[in-house]
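debug: dumping io for the single-chain case to check the tokenizer round-trip. Nothing else runs in this session.
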Amino acid sequence: MVDTNTIGKGGPLRPMDRRAKKLIVPELTGMPLRDASIVLAQAGFGPPVPRYVEAYAAENDVVGQAPARGQLVDSSTPVELSVAKASWVRFLPQLYQETTSGKNGLLHEFMWIFQQLHDRVTQQVTDSALLYRPLDTDPRFLEWLASWIALHLDPDWPDEKKRKWLRFAPALYSMRGTKAALSELLEMYTGVKPEILENQWPFEPFRVGVSSEIGTTSTILPPMNLAHCFVVHLPVPASAISDDQIIRVHRVIQAEKPAHTHYFLTFASDEDTYELQPFMTIGEEALSDSDPNE
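debug: decoded output
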């Protein structure tokens, strides 16, 4: 969107500035750092910026915050949290632990850098089990987790829907190859409940002397056993589904159907297209697109 009021004389167009959402900073002091991060996320803020300090409080408890509680700030404002920690400087010789004169203050602050980096890596290793839990894993890992169970996630789906089907998909493997499993998967990808007609095929075979009407039953097909055939009918017009979705539907059916079966995909607007129209009729005058006066 372009704001025409920002066009200067001879200057280029500039996009309209979007105002960030205003949020109230919640009370975080006294909470463990993990709980404070959850509260911030629920309030609409991004991850906090922790800063380690030595304080008379339980380790990893928040002892200070900036901005303060109750302030109205932009949602993009970083929230800095002072977190109680025992400094690694205690492992150094006694000479370097003294900070009364302030001459070792720089050393204390310098040690915080390595301690914070170490704790960040340690926390990632500790939380690695969460990567395999659909409801808790980071959204960046949803596609990777889906690849473990051969599940394709649509990029346009919200994260909630991706997590739901990641959790539900393994249960479908116990009934894979059945009508119920195929129906559930197709409904997941298309948003509509399909109708699966077993032991059916939309065309009649061409049999000389039995059913051989030119233009009506003249479709040449390989031998078809109706016991191994089924029709998948989606109750929506074909125009309502994109080409990418149709390709995905075919891939789902191919992956889920038994290998020895054949299927035919139909749509709500295609019901009348099964009757083949003759392109030539013997004994009747052929219609011409040319002008009859010529």
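debug: round-trip ok. The helical segments are 33-43, 94-97, 105-126, 142-147, 159-172, 179-190, 243-256.
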